[in-house]
Amino acid sequence: MDYGYRWLLEHALRRRWVVVVLTLLVLFSIGPLGAAVNKNFLPEDDQSQLEVVVRAPEGWTLAATDRFATQMAAEIRRLPGMDYTIVTAGDDPQHTPNRFTIFAKMVDLDKRSISQQAMYSKVRDLIQSRYGYLGLQTQVEAVAEFGGSGGFQPVDYVVNGPNLGVLTRVGDQGIRILRSIPGVVDPRSSLISGAPQLGVQVDRARAADLGVNAVDAANALYMLVQGVEVKTAKYTEAGQQYKIVIRADKQHRSDQDLLAQLPVSSPTQGVVALEQVVTTSRGVGPSEISHYNRRRQVELTANLLPTASQQAVLQELDRKIRALGLGPQYDMTFTGQAIEQGRQGAAFMQSFMLSFLFMYLVLAAQFESWLHPVTILLSLPLTVPFALLSILFLHGSLNILSQLGILVLFGVVKKNAILQIDRANHLRVLGLDRNAAIVQASRDRLRPILMTTIAFVAGMIPLAISTGVGAATNRAMSSVIIGGQVMSLLLTLVAIPVMYSLLDDLRGLRVSGWLAVPRRWWEGRGGLPREQTPSPLGP
After folding, report:
1. Residue 410 sits in the same domain as residue 385
2. What is the pLDDT of residue 529?
3. Distance, CA of 247 to CA of 225 (rounded, Å)
4. How does pLDDT run across 291-325, given as a tens digit for each residue?
5. Is 207:266 a contact under the CB 8 Å cutoff?
6. 400, 311 Cβ separation under 8 angstroms
7. Contact at 8 Å (CB) between 521 and 36?
8. Residues 263, 174 share a domain
9. Over the stretch 418-441, which tens digit does the pLDDT of each residue have?
């Protein structure tokens, strides 16, 4: 091995342009590889559990929804690998009667033959084949790790504006757009039309004739449906005080006849029935209307298949929604996990640049040179393409944990370059020719470099081959470190000595003009000649 490495290094120093071209090709491959790899926020672990969030057709009662949910849960339990299910109906904050959630617990991973992601597909196929004719809105996803049900989908996009009709159309078009994007499943819009509604319109002319203020009519209707808190009294029991809210019973709040007889005060008539001053009309509309900054909004959510790239899907969705030409009065933005991914990407790039800066400053102080740190840091970008290749080979994604693995990889690779350059500097101080010092230094440091690399990779192997809960998190970081370290080792062992010689030639240039001025200024301030650069670490 020593002889082969010496032969390779001597030929590389005689044909440095070959190494330079190869290095540039590797560096330029970062762009295509970065575009090809999937980019997600977090890897998804196999937790042996999932949940199915279903919205049945509008108009279903809570009892009908509960019976239907129980039937669906029984069919899900029959799937191979399922253990038990738990059904909750009307469990959202609005207590929507036609919405239910099925929590499904699978047997342990070592007792089933399919993964959690594969189970998602089986549940979706089951629901589509058995209940597709009902037009259910279904989301099959991982159980939220921090409590709650749903609400943390990888695709979460919000459009808000003044016109509810426009937002409803955007919701319908958004679902069609999501279905057209490869890898997207379970698209959903928060504005769901079809809920039966009773519209109440105050007849201002008739109200004026009867002496009824329109505000009083609205307040009476608000008390009937929403309820009004009694500010002057509290209900006390066992030393605890509770709010008192006046509101009609649940069965009466949907009674149109009771609504018609609701009394409204009038200064001239005393009390009049609400039906005397309003007109009612039946229709359909969205079951719920959410707001953001006091503006109505529609929220588009979806889940992704394992082969889909979250970043690519979000960019495609944003481009197509903006192409609808909604106008300046409508705002479009990501939220939830989608916006967190954007923040995480920006934070990673900031950390990436700061790590380069601090490493450069520390190395410049150690080597008392501005060029040697450049040689060392040139080894870091050479590992990125190989780290991305390892993600592609293992069908993974570039997420927050694999990015952390790349930063760890930088620290390991930088250590190898420091060993080579420090030893070369020491041998040159002892009088060896530059190329001879480079070859000898690389040979001397080959053994410790290989030993530390093998030990480090061996320590990552248990994480890379781990199974069970948390395995995806372990593999996301360890696979990047192992792949980047192993595949880039040979190139960095050859490229660093060549770059050292090239930058040493640049340091020794004697030219007139702008390049000579800073050199003479540096030497005039006591800068060390290149032949006398000391070793910060000793022999």
Report:
1. yes
2. 45
3. 7
4. 877 788 999 999 988 888 888 899 999 999 999 98
5. no
6. no
7. no
8. no
9. 988 889 888 888 888 888 888 898
Tokens, residue 171: 């919701």
- Residue 131 included in any domain: yes
Cα-based angle 335, 338, 344 (whole degrees, multiple of 5) = 115
pTM, to two decimals: 0.71
Name 14's Cβ contacts closer than 8 Å, sequence gap at least 6: none
340 CB-contact burial (10 Å; exposed 0-12 / middle 13-18 / buried 19+): middle
Q: Which pair of tokens denotes residue 504?
A: 């040493």
Q: Residue 257 burial by CB count (10 A; 0-12/13-18/19+): exposed, middle or buried? A: exposed
Nearest Cα to 56, choosing from 100, 98, 103, 102?
Answer: 98
Place of tokens 């929604």: 321
Say how far apart CA 493 and CA 413 lie, in whole Å: 10
Residue 70: how many other CB atoms lie within 10 Å: 14
Per DSSP, 453 falls in state H
DSSP three-state, residue 398 = strand
What end-to-end distance do the CA atoms of the chain give, in Å? 23
Please indicate, yes or no, if residue 128 is contained in any of the structural domains.
yes
> Taking a C-beta distance cutoff of 8 angstroms, is the pair 363, 373 a contact?
yes
- DSSP SS3 for 333: strand
